Amino acid sequence: MRRFLLLLALVTCCAIAVAAQQPAEQRAGLNEAATGFDARGAPAIEGKLLTTLLNGSDDSPVTNVRLVVKNTSPNFYTYVTGWATFYDSGAVRCGEGLFKVDALAPGESSETDTPGLRLKCTPASWRIVATNLLTRTSDAAKEVVVTPPLAEPAPEKPAPVNFIISIDGEQHPIQVGNPIVLKLGNRNRRVVLRPVP
Known about the structure:
Elements: H1 2-21, E1 28-29, E2 34-37, E3 43-49, E4 66-71, E5 77-87, E6 93-101, E7 109-113, E8 125-135, E9 162-167, E10 170-175, E11 179-184, E12 187-192
């Protein structure tokens, strides 16, 4: 009994996880615009049907429709493909066709068709799904690097100049501004070399 309950709980959790991952399908009426989303779930393209007479059947399917695809994203797409899928009044899929557009600027629309479509019903709704949204390399996501405002450059400090002090043949290196301690007699003396202002 424990194993059965554990298995039932596992199956339920898996079903909930799978249902949570499925995106909500966006269907539109035939006179409405359908929206296609990018990989992040943001609206990328919008489609409107130009062909209004869609009366297909098994014996005489509709083999092509015209539609207008509009870029609703801020990206310039160099290549766009997707599927236009049609559903009858019972929400059963009854045809789908592939569309493509070679280049689409932000806010731009392009007329295209769906060759290879086999629409076998009189559809009540439709949707579009973007399968390829290729952007220019300059539009690809880049890491934004914020540069701090430029401050006034600090005055350059001159490189230290090295000198040698020779006392009774004994040599002591010294730099400008840095002290040197010398033993003169029985006392230590501090000597600093400074530039003249």
